[in-house]
Amino acid sequence: MAAHHHHQKQIAIIGAGISGLLACKYALSKDFNPTVFESQNGVGGLWANTLPTTKLQTPKSLYQFADFPWPESVATHFPTHDQVLDYLQSYADHFELTKHIKFNTKVIGIEYRGVAEEEVEAWALCGGNGDVFGSRGGKWEVEVSSDGSDKTEIFVADFVILCVGKYSGVPNIPEFPNGKGPEAFQGKVIHSTQYSGLEAGESKELVEGKRVAIVGFRKHAMDIAMECSEINGKGNPCRVLYRTERWSFPDWFPPLPCLYLSRFSELLIHKPGEGILLSLLATILSPIRWGISKFVEREIKRKHPLEKHGLVPKQSFLQDVSSCLIATVPDKFFDRVEEGSIVLKKAPSFSFCKEGIKVEGGDKDENKQQQPPLEADLVILATGFKGEKKLQDIFGSKRFREIISIANLYTSEMRSRWLAELLDGKFRLPAIEKMEADAANWDVFFKEYGGESYHRSSIATVHVWYNDQLCKDMGWNPRRKNGLWAELFEPYGPTDYVSP
């Protein structure tokens, strides 16, 4: 298929995190004219707004750009916050991406102009005729404000790429009945993103000598708990409230890539759009799938005192990894629990009172009496973000508000390369009805393996299968290894996709 004549095509990219940098690089590779709008003053996205003590929880070999390896000076498997930011900045500098980024520029709204919404709703093909740039001259109007100014300007684009991320932006603040929210509490309540934005001296001043309670038990919550316990010790232990027990890794579990990132591992799982033979094979091999999950669970329990602290999850490891609910436990976290500077407390639900937090639905004493309030001076809500809310705020049309998804660096690079080839006219999208049916198949997959948390599901357990589909669209050979054994059993990673 002939490529587009697109030297003047304007591509608007929202966000200069990992996905935004990749989208910009691959748009440039096809001679498009990208402009990246970034609300912060530098690249990095989420990594520019996390704790200085935070480390990468994926080994760097699985978290790197395909054609830009980590520098030799980074010897650790789990680079620090500063090392990750330096790596991302070096990538932007190496490929001269910075000159295409408008920093301190916030996107206020996005509208599609030139074609009536009723007509767009009736399209059977993308763009009306299968052309991603449209057949009727429609354009995107991106309204932005710079440097906190009240004045806005309009940027007109032929195509918009959203790289806004799901783990930043709009904090997820739990809702409470009247009189039972933060307003009832005499202390201070902040969201974890506010804590992360503090300088080291400010965070120490905030928590020192305070009774701190953290709501949440994922990576950010554990990192903050480690900082608080370091400052206050056993004298004022940091209380961590969690709702559901989840499987979490020690620093690294070497067999994991072979067990979950190889082509063989994906033969054990029913995949969206698979044929009868693959479906039958996944059913026959299901005992192996169960056995692998149990093996990983046993190893985690061997390395972490989960049983001692009542932290053994009811759901399988496979369900948690399918729902993107696996975290890496900070080094010496359970040592702090053992010494008493971190106290874990199950709280299926909670509310605020004057003294602190009322835990509801957790453990009660033998007489079934209500637990006394958990007294606190500071409550930090490590309750995540509302990524979808950012889209609702940006788009005027309801049609475009629910299309955000989770991706890591590895996935983002493949998606960016696929998108660049699509925009370049190498292939066309199928009919909208067919794409909707394919999306429905993926939804069935997420529900099957993600359980009650399926809405958080990712492609973590079917990376190879997912990338196979992208490779086929781009005309690449999806088989990237040398030899049958390597193809089946060696884990796939970013460097397997350096070239077509």
In short:
By secondary structure, this protein is of the alpha/beta class.
Explain how this protein is built:
- This protein is an alpha/beta fold and 500 residues long.
- Among the domains are: 10-168 and 387-429, FAD/NAD(P)-binding domain; 172-246 and 326-384, FAD/NAD(P)-binding domain, CATH 3.50.50.
- It has 17 helices and 17 strands.
- A 5-stranded parallel sheet has the order 8-17-9-10-13. A 4-stranded parallel sheet has the order 3-2-1-7, with helices on one face.
- Strand 9 (212-215), helix 6 (219-232) and strand 10 form a beta-alpha-beta unit.
- The longest helix is centred in the last third of the chain and has 19 residues, at 432-450.
- Residues 364-368 have low confidence and may be disordered.
